[in-house]
Amino acid sequence: MRPELIAILLLTAPVAALAVPEKCTPSSYAKVQPLKYPAQAVAARIEGKVLVEAVVETDGSPGQLAVLESSGNTDLDQAALDSVAEWRFNAMQCDGKATRSTAVVPVEFALSSNSSEGSVGTLIPRSPGGAGYALAFDWRTDPQPLEFTSLKDGLQYLRSQPGISERRTPNGSRFTREDGALVWDLFETRDASSPAGPKQLILRQRWTDTLDARVLLIGAICLPTPTWCQQEINRRVADILNQGPP
Q1: Residue 49 — pLDDT band, cuts 50, 70, 90?
Q2: At 166, which helix (H) or strand (E)?
């Protein structure tokens, strides 16, 4: 079976770190469903980025939604709104109490040779007065190609290279280069009823610094299906970004 090489595409450029109110923990993603690329936009080869402003209620549900920055295409804007409306968030916590807040969700729709998927950026807290937004860090496709072109070759490479250690995790394994600059995570989902066999993803991550932010660079290889792969990548990257840079 041919693995899917998934392109994680550039999201909204970072501006500057924005402090949340004192003694508060900002809202974060809890459950993100795959974004649906509008068929009309795919057929017309239309791409674009949308910033969705979302009120995060105390129970984590999205309240009022609005397009803060349009992609320039009404179908993409509406698809972003419809997707975010189905998500769930972890509410902002202030002194241990769930607090209603406003955040900005960056969404990008981009086409590649083997998939048409949307990507989700870091959740951006709005300032208490509602003016302005900012990113402390962002993520994008790593321009450095993966060291391997298949999952089988990837595991052989990671387990044979000196200076790379392996640690078992609940969902697979984590491989770390001895200087800590590169990390590869293997995620496996086994479903006995699936004729396609186990679902597997190797996600490589490294952080780099730009003039105004820390940026997470991602490379990935995955099988069996592009839809599952993109969904799993979005979920894993959201987890990494919620934890923040090392």
Answers
A1: confident
A2: strand 164-169
